[in-house]
């Protein structure tokens, strides 16, 4: 069966932890039949990056949370996307986001909010995490629950400041990112199928 749609994961990772999250999100997306996933490191703002994102039906944004906000490298990418915004080149694409920080809270929500606003300015359709909160939300919660950090706008992960990317983020956080990638792929596939049906009706 040929690939039908592409989900692009556009991310920056300072030390490798967020890159693991990005790979998990891509794995979730490509687990959906008819979907292929591409990883794009936004550190280098090359023509290849912009072409890859242009050809994707969905873009999942990813950045570590530094000092309560997205990384400088991701912000540079966001600002450089203004040349796409001028022509509304990403309008109606599906979008979502994930982030990682050393703190359990770390003000990660601020990073996800910034990503959602970036997507809104581009006219994209934002996909939420779609999971109930785990872990400390209930007395019998476990630290290996999906969405253990209780985020809703996107996928959150936590990596201790003294743990390398070979051990962090936790498996639960990576599974949560994988869930997000799968959810984005399913949403994008449904929208693409709907557009094809409408195009056929119009014809």
From TrEMBL:
GO terms for cellular component: membrane. InterPro entries: Flavodoxin/NO_synth, Flavoprotein-like_sf, FMN_Rdtase-like_dom. Residues 7-185 form the Flavodoxin-like domain. PROSITE patterns: FLAVODOXIN_LIKE. It comes from the Bacteria. GO terms for molecular function: FMN binding; NAD(P)H dehydrogenase (quinone) activity. Gene3D superfamilies: 3.40.50.360. PANTHER family: FLAVODOXIN-RELATED PROTEIN WRBA-RELATED, FLAVOPROTEIN-LIKE PROTEIN YCP4-RELATED. This is FMN reductase. It comes from Planomonospora parontospora.
